[in-house]
Amino acid sequence: GLCAESEPLPVIVRFLPTWSRICVAALALSASCGSGPDQRRPNVIIVFVDDLGYADLGAYGATSWETPNLDRLAGEGARFTDFYVAQPVCSASRAALLTGTYPNRIGIHGALGPQDRHGVHEDELTLGELFQSQGYATAIFGKWHLGHHPRFLPTRHGFDEFYGIPYSNDMWPNHPENPEDWGDLPTFEGERVVGLNTDQNRFTTDFTERTVDFIDRSVAAGKPFFAYLAHPMPHVPLHVSSQRRGASGAGLYADVIQEIDWSMGRILDTLQRLKVDGRTLIFFCSDNGPWLSYGDHAGSAGLLREGKGTTFEGGVRVPAIVRWPGVIPAGRTIREPAMTIDVLPTLAGRIEAPLPRHAIDGKDIWPLIVGGPAAVSPHPAYFFYYHRNALEAMRSGRWKLHFPHGYRSMEGREAGSGGIPGKYDYSRTIGLALYDLSTDIGETHDLSEEYPEVVLRLSELAQAIRAELGDSLEDVEGTGLRAPGTVEQTGSRGPRDFEISEGPRG
Fold it and tell me: Using an 8 Å Cβ cutoff, are 328 and 25 in contact?
């Protein structure tokens, strides 16, 4: 069932003795699928979008625009209702996805920029390296954001191919508020810079077509593939191709979302054309919630509280869909909590790859995805760190516990418009607060005084993770932290310092 759909056996074969027919059929299967146990392992495509809100897809309640291809993905696969990123910000979120660890464990915090001297350490196992170890062709197209210096680039961490940008698409001279803070935004081909400040209207289409070409070449070569399509959109500044600008009739943000939906349709069509749809697993997710200060250039968290940059549900709960036809039951809804840290160990189990010897935090959630008697979260709790190793919140079963911390909010503030952000209120604080997410996904009713035994149980779990990962709010160091990779503090080595190869500029 995992191999490309095969042609019927020739008529003459049907007249051969039974054993001969079996041998011929086996040879035909081998020719179309390859031989050995690798063919039981799926191709894998991860589509990771930037700043998509929980309520921005039709399958999650969007009504102002249409997302038929992503809705189809959910209808033909499994849709998570309670899926989380480890932190509500770009680099940290990607570190969790690609390494299966809480990002603070490996020294990745916040959003790395052109002046940062650190990135993912070479001793960490990434998804790219996991798939390479099993003979997969690997590629990333889009946004990397785990370090822009040569030793941190995707090609040094398990990816055969890289075409895209090293950090966020707003880190460039056209920033609406502080352009003087940013140099030119480089576009990389492998480890070469092939353009500066590339026209971002091309991004979604270019990265999609590169992904399609990679899939085509991998299938033609008879190699299983892992494609990581990391769209920079809908992170501001919003850009969309001329073909799809205005197509939604609902504004630029809607145009951008519909182009991402077009991208998914293009990939699904490619898999069907190549007859590998039934042996390809697709995982779609956002890196955090919407950037609410941008108003009409931001998405919606729906009924969830707050957005990107906070550990409330609107910042860390994201739409997530997984599809593998014939393996994952179609139309399945998964209401148990899960997190991006679980992606690596779950995929490792599907491709029979060994996990790293060092500690990771994710667990194999395959029973949760396909259903069955053990279809519950294997984690007693998930933890949400932010602001340089501050443990701000945790999720355990139906309960969400916040520890005292400050946060930003747009409540009562005028949101931005046309790509110019509004101003956050950074003076907000929350004390110890307990919410029952089964009845209060908006985190509005604090139940900490009514359920002190729950607060005590969760606090004990928090103390255990503090001992391992630390907590700057409690002044705890943590014994399980690993250092990120670093480069020497000599020279700037920003994007202007890279040698520019022939290619597009602007």
Answer: no
E strand or H helix at 187: strand 186-189
Question: Partners of 138 in the beta sheet?
Answer: 226
∠ CA 343-351-158, rounded to 5°: 70
Element (H, E) at 367: helix 366-370
Q: Strand, coil or helix: what is 249? A: coil
Structural contact between residues 267 and 282, judged by C-beta atoms closer than 8 angstroms: yes
Q: What is the pLDDT of residues 407-455, one digit of tens each?
A: 999 999 999 999 999 999 999 999 999 999 999 999 999 999 999 999 9
Structure tokens at 81: 């209702």
Q: Hey, which residues does 434 pair with through a beta bridge?
A: 401
Residues in contact with 9: Cβ distance below 8 Å, sequence separation at least 6, in sequence order: 21, 24, 25, 28
Q: 443: helix, coil or strand?
A: coil
pTM of the full structure = 0.90
What are the tokens at 68?
A: 């038929």
Q: Pick from 293, 294, 299: which is nearest to 254 by CA?
A: 299
| β-strand partners of 161 | 139
Report yes or no: 426 and 405 within 8 Å, Cβ to Cβ: no
Q: How confident is the model at residue 200 (pLDDT cuts 50, 70, 90)?
A: very high
- Best CA proximity match to 73, nearest among 210, 268, 288, 234: 268
Report CA-CA distances (Å) from 341 to 31, 128, 284, 335: 37, 15, 14, 17
| pLDDT, average across residues 155-165 | 98
Q: Across the chain, how many H-helices and E-strands are there?
A: 10, 19
What is the distance between the alpha carbons of residues 70 and 246, in angstroms, rounded to a whole number?
20
Give the contacts of 35 (CB within 8 A, at least 6 positions apart).
none
What is the DSSP pairing of strand 137-143 with strand 118-119?
unpaired
Per DSSP, the three-state class of 169 is coil
Catalytic residues: 90, 145
Tokens of 326: 């014939």
pLDDT of residue 173: 95
- The answer to whether 289 and 314 have CB atoms below 8 angstroms apart is yes
HEC profile for 77-146?
A: CEEEEEEECCCCCHHHHHHHHHHCCCHHHHCCCCCCCCCCCEECCCCCCCHHHHHHCCCCEEEEEEECCC
Q: Are 379 and 363 in contact (CB under 8 A)?
A: yes
Helix (H) or strand (E) holding 162: strand 161-165
